[in-house]
Specification:
Elements lengths: L3 H29 L7 H31 L5 H33 L9 H45 L1
Helix pairs in contact: 1-2, 1-4, 2-3, 3-4
Amino acid sequence: MRSHTRTFILIAACFLWAGLIIGISFIESPAKFNAPGMTLSLGLGIERLVFSLMNKVEIALCTILLVAMCFNGTTKREWIVAGVLTGVLFLQTNWLLLSLDVQASAVGTGQNPQPNSLQSLYQALELVKTMLLFILAFLAHKLTIIHKHADRLKAHRLQDLVS
């Protein structure tokens, strides 16, 4: 059975997570490298710390989101979106962030690693996660309203039958 409280927790986790991605990945990270006096080595050092912490927060928000879904009469469509979202986070955590960390460490020690498309892939996946979070929040809200409206409609029909 769907609950407004559990739906609120799910939607809040989605919006907090999306806000984190937008704030860090799309605003703070690019702006940092345009700051006066910011060197590539220093910027990458800060980046490694920030994205490591952000990843831990994302894992916590993903856990909250999945737990809220477990107890909220979640539909197959919602589980598919959450599964893709979790898969993207798993991919970033266990492969992409580790590879980017190795590159940043190499730059920090004065090496010049081969350019590759890992950073572009990371940004693309951040965009995908953001879109999936908004889709999941929309679905959860819409389906809860439909479910609650159906319950109220049944109650009104029963009331009409009794009167």
